[in-house]
Amino acid sequence: MVKPLEPDVVRDVATAQRHTVRTLVVAQIIGGIGIGSALSVGALLALDLSGSQSWAGLATTMITLGAAVCALPLARLAAYRGRRVSLSTGWSVAAVGGLIVIAAASLRLFPLFLLGMVLFGSGSATNLQSRFTATDLAEPDNRARDLSLVVWATTVGSVLGPNLNEPGALVARLVGIPELAGAFAISTAAFVLAGLFQWWRLRPDPLLTAQRVLNAARGTTGPPPLRAAFDAIRRSPGAILAVVTVAISHAIMVSVMAMTPVHMKGHGATLTIVGLTISVHIAGMYALSPLVGWLADRIGRISVIFIGMSIMVVAVITAGTAGMSDVQVAIGMVLIGLGWSCGTVAGATLLAESVDSADRPGAQGFSDLLMNLMGALGGGLSGVVLGSIGFGGLNALAGVLVVPVLVLAVRRIRLRSVGG
Question: Domain 228-420's class?
Answer without folding.
Answer: mainly alpha
